[in-house]
Amino acid sequence: MTAAMEHAAHDHDNRDRDEQDAVVVSMQDQDTDEVSARLLASAARLSRNAMTEIDWDLPMDPTKYGCSPEWSSLYGTAYWDELTEEQRISVTRHEFASIMNIGIWFEMILQEMVVRDQYLGEYHSPEFQFALTEIADECRHSIMFAKASEKMVGTSYRPSKFVGRLGKFFKATAKNEVAYAGILVAEEVLDVFQRGCMRDDRVLPFIRTVNEIHVLEESRHMKFARQEVRDALEGVGRARRAFSALYISIGAYTIVSNLVQRQAFVDAGLDADRAVAEMNANSHFHSMIRSSCAHLMEFLDEVGLLTRPAMYYYRKANML
Predict the structure, then answer these.
(1) N or C: which end of the chain has fewer CB within 10 A?
(2) pTM of the prediction?
(3) Domains, the chain, ranges and CATH?
């Protein structure tokens, strides 16, 4: 692609994101069907297809990272300082592959929860139709993440069997505000991360495009989820609100604490035990997670889901 074409494509991406953000901001005091109708129109105009937009056969530049170095879980540690540039590039690629794969795991949970919620919905309603649009988006995102991780590192990362069982329990029992706030957790945490990485020329071009597509389309999903949470909590008593707040926070802790799998460090050729220990003690990485969760915490506080017991788990996951 020529420099002029790259500049034009970048301007087009910026216009798409600006329009998407404007749509989301403009829907502050509307009901669910009004919000859904606007989001459906936005999806029709702005949805993108990674299968045709990305040249999956294009060779990777060996000098490009998998994510911005500052977003590596090891950045700022003594271990990071000891790594060669080649090792740093490798670890960011495996880390981001792990994050995308955990994203697939949760997107599969998300799809089942939304289908169940809309099972006997009002099929003519914008709410039902956007819910199915979201499911279609998530299917495409999962394929996109799968192809991206295959291309970048050639392997898959999954949560442990125990965490997998927890996910099955969550998707079977989470309803209403718990389901949609759980969706928000996974989407909000990745949003700031991906917004930074998609503008970083040090990152692999196809990964930047993956991030751009995900950020653009997830902004619609987050607005929809917020509206569903508000609707679900209308008239809810203190006991249910307190239970939901705690359940959501435990789910959030489980998701965030599993983003970077130990096997990613093994596959990158690092001492995995040391890497995990330094990641868990890395104040820089913790501060980056907190920054990515700022809007989520504000929203949970706004709707009464940021209780003291819930805050314990958010702090444990370095989200607060």
Answers:
(1) N
(2) 0.85
(3) 63-316 (1.10.620.20)
